[in-house]
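Backbones bend. To wit:
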Amino acid sequence: MEEFSEALGPSIEKMRGSSSAGVSDRRRFMQGILGHLTSSGLVTRFEEPHYGDDTVYRLSVAGMAEDVAIIQKGCPDGAHSSIRWSVPDWAGEAYLWWVCGSMNYHPGVHVHKGVQRLFQRFIDDGPDQLAGVIFHNELCGGSRRLCPKSEHAVVIDGRETPPPCVYVMPDRDLSVNEWNWNGGQKRTFPAVLMSAFGITEEQTPHFVGDVGYRFIGGKRKTNVVSRYGIARMTSHRS
């Protein structure tokens, strides 16, 4: 028992150190991506979060009248990353960006778990509304997480980085029982983000996915569509 007590303190400190390192790595990754958008002339300015605040980046985007909020989170299957967030009042479009390094699930499973959790926030009659969700971290495009969009990868911080997986969320309308079920919801920022990877505005619809919800017989259904290029897509309904 005494040996256990002596070992417990250092073990906790080690876990805390690993957690802090994970947050630091995520922030460096986001800074690299947003720095690439800035150097490409697509973002005219971005503000980094202050230490201790929510990790929300404020982007001034060329051609967009209102700023874009990027809410950085970890893996989407946790409550903190999919439920505990808020959209700043200055945001024209807001995106939850899951910087997830977990290999416990396929990326598509991670995303599906996240959008399932997001439904309660979506259906709540509150002020927060997401324009979309993004799944992307430094593993994407590497040997451990192969990416079907790697042909469009660019070098960021010395690493071949493919375009992010972007999913457009539906607008909230509590008078209906189906939201973006067949896609078609339009957003502005995804085309800006894709252009940083050489994908034109005309090509963007072939690389941006959708999240849809519906109620049938009192049961909620979720539809997640991923797109990787012309005639390349997957769809998962549950």
User: Anything to note?
Assistant: Residues 1-21 have pLDDT under 50 and may be disordered. DSSP finds four helices and twelve strands in the chain. The CA atoms of residues 1 and 102 lie 33 Å apart. The radius of gyration is 19 Å.
